[in-house]
Amino acid sequence: MFTKTEITRSFNATRELVFKAFTESEHLKNWWGPKGWAFDISKFELRQDGVFHYSQTSPEGNVMWVKFVYQEVNAPEKLVYTSFFSDEKGNIVRAPFNGSWPLEILNTFTFTEHEGKTMLTMIGTPVSPTDEEMKTYEESQEMVQAGFSGTFVQLADYLSNVSEN
User: Fold this and answer.
1) What pLDDT does residue 72 have?
2) In 3-state terms, the chain is what percent helix, strand and coil (to 5)?
3) What are residue 44's phi and psi, to 5 degrees?
4) Quick one: 28 exposed, middle or buried, by C-beta within 10 A (0-12, 13-18, 19+)?
5) Domains, the chain, ranges and CATH?
């Protein structure tokens, strides 16, 4: 049984708005990624088999490319995609921070609403990892949790300042 990352977070916004924040580039550019990093979208196709390819640049100038391939887009309830580090052309590359990080992660985001608040549940699971990749993934859970938690704080801040339109 593979280890999975599971993160649940509540947002004080409607499910439709939270889903749009994940699926519309004009929203994403305002909160996605590590705090303080520049974010640039190369390609964004929100549909089954569509691609989201972007770069993030650290304050020190280091550029990291990431690519998503969407498996399921079910607005405003669910997003499923594989993610991987890539080069500028979108080819899979090893993670810049650890050469034994799994090449691909399957990510499932579900959005449920209750009384105007949205519960987001994210589950990430390595796709066909080697034993070494699985060990690295398991040992990196604290880093993964911290990274997503920080990103979700940025999303909460963004949602508190954006209208429903």
Assistant:
1) 98
2) 25, 40, 35
3) -145, 105
4) buried
5) 5-160 (3.30.530.20)
Task: Identify any residues that bridge with 81 across adjacent strands, giving them in sequence order.
Answer: 70, 107
Please check whether residue 158 is in contact with residue 11, taking contact to mean a CB–CB distance below 8 angstroms: no
pLDDT at 1 over 60: no
| Residue 13, burial from CB neighbour count under 10 angstroms (0-12, 13-18, 19+) | buried
Cα maximum dimension of the chain:
47
Residue 81 and residue 54 in contact, taking contact as beta carbons nearer than 8 Å: no
Both tokens assigned to 78:
């669910």
Helix 141-160 to helix 131-139 angle (10° resolution) is 60
pLDDT digits (tens, 9 = 90+) for 31-63: 998 888 999 999 999 999 999 999 999 999 999
pLDDT level of residue 2 (50, 70, 90 thresholds): low
CB contact at 8 A, 108 and 78: yes
For 85-133, give the DSSP string: EE-TT--B---TT-TTS-S-EEEEEEEEEETTEEEEEEEEEESS--HHH
